[in-house]
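sorry for the late reply, my laptop died twice this morning and i had to redo everyting from scratch. anyway the thing you sent over, i finally got around to it. pasting the sequence first so we're on the same page, its 322 residues, then the predicted structure underneath. double check i copied it right bc i was rushing
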Amino acid sequence: MMPTAPRAMFLQLPGSKNRVRSRLGTLLGVVGCVMTLGLNTCLADGPIGAERADGQVTLGRNWTLKLPTDDRVVFSGALDFEGASVNSGSMMYPAPNPGVFLASVITHALIVGAQKSSQREQAQESADKVLDPYQPILSTVSYQELARRWVDGMLPGSSRKLIGVAESPGRDEWLIEMTPVFLMAQDQRTLSLDAVVSICAPGAPESAGSQSHIRVIAPAEESTDLAATWLADQGKKLKEVSAWLFSESLNIAMSAAIDGAGQTGQPVRTIRYLEGTTEKMERAQLISERYGRLLIKTLRGSLMSVPVKVSTVTGDNSTASK
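ok and here's the structure:
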C-alpha cells in the first residue's frame, strides 16, 4: 500500500541551517536544463506535441518511481545567484611571517563566505515572496498527484508505478529516485524544474545507478493577469504545468539511462533559449530538437530541455552558433 500522499509546502527559509534550503542551494548550483512552445498543445496531447522525451527506448521496460524521502514538494522563487553574490575584490594581507599571512587569508575567506551566504539567504527570502499568492494551492499538491501524469503516460509493453520510501522495486523493474525543486520566475510567467534523478537497472545495487542533473523550463504564460490564470479553477494550470515538468524530467532521465542520451559527439556551441520572455545563452552540445524545444547537454554535464523561438529552431545560426 502507498503511504499517505505527501503534501507540498511553501518553502520557508528562516535560517541558514534550514535543511530544505541547503538542498535547494546545492541543486541550483549543479543543475542546468529545459523547454518551450505552445503549452496548451503540450498539456493536451503529450509532453511536447506528438513526440516524447523518452521516445521508443523505454519500450518493454518496467519502471518504478520511489517517492522522495522528504515529505514536502519544494516550490521556491527563482533567483539569479549571480546577483546575490558578494564582490570580494582584492585585499592586502599585512603579516610578519608566512604563518600569519596564511591565517589572514583563511580568515578573510571565511568572512567573505559568510557574507555571500547571508546575502544569498536574504535574496532567496525576497525571491520566495513571488509565491505568496499561490500558497493555498501549493499546500495541496502531492507527489502522487504530480507523478500521475508520468504513470498514465506509459508506452505499450511497459509499466510504471509508484512506491513509498520503505518499499523496494520488483526484480525486473528499473528503480527511479528523484529530488525535485520547482521554481517560479519573478515575473510569474513561467515555471521550471531543477532535479537530480537517479536510475538503477534491475538487480543492480542502488549505488551503481546512473545520475542525471535535469532542468526543464515550461513555456511562458502570456496572460495579462498571471495570478488569476495560475489560480483559476483551483490552480488547475499551476498543477498541470508542475505535473508536466515532473513527467518530462523523468522521461529525459529514463532515455539517458537507456541509450546514453547525454553522450553526444556534437560540437560545443552557444545555445540561445527562452526563460519566460527573456532570451538566455548556454555553452552546450545540442542533443535534439523537438517542436520548438531543444534538449542540450551543458559544460557542467547537466541536461536541459529548453524552449526557443519557433523561427530559430532549425537551420538558423541565431539559435545555435559555434
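Helices lie at 19-30, 39-45, 98-127, 135-138, 143-152, 226-259.
thats about all i looked at so far, will dig more tmrw
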